[in-house]
Specification:
Radius of gyration: 19 Å
Order of helices and strands: EEHEHEEHEEHE
Structural class: alpha+beta
Oligomer: single chain
Length: 151
Amino acid sequence: GVRGIVEVAGTPAGWLGHLHPALLAEAGIAGDVFAAELDLGAVLASDPGTTTFAPISAYPASEQDIAVVVPASTPAGDLVHALEQAGIPDLDSVGIFDRYEGDQLPAGSISIALRLRFASHDGTLEDAQVDERREQAVQVLAERFGAVLRD
């Protein structure tokens, strides 16, 4: 069934979904049952258009970590935004988990580590598909920011 996260201005404010038929059958319940948990205060207090619904895939996700070297003046949030807007298939989320600068990098450079989460709503992604999408992400960052994949 439909399952997803409700966000208000980018902050999670609840979830909703259709309970699985096997669970309903086990409980002796006929028909469809939906469940939701929402922070109605946040939803009602939000500006129109800031509340969104993002479906969750029923198939397993694959997380890929990459670290890229970019000029030190590059805001890490710009890397995330560029990937979110790039239209990479099945890219579910992008997060930053490390920032490094030091002697192991060229002068004026930093390393940003990103976690890419891929999930399809059509089936489990094969390793080759995930690898292809990861390479697309690296290419986007190379083209936009001169990013180089860090070993």
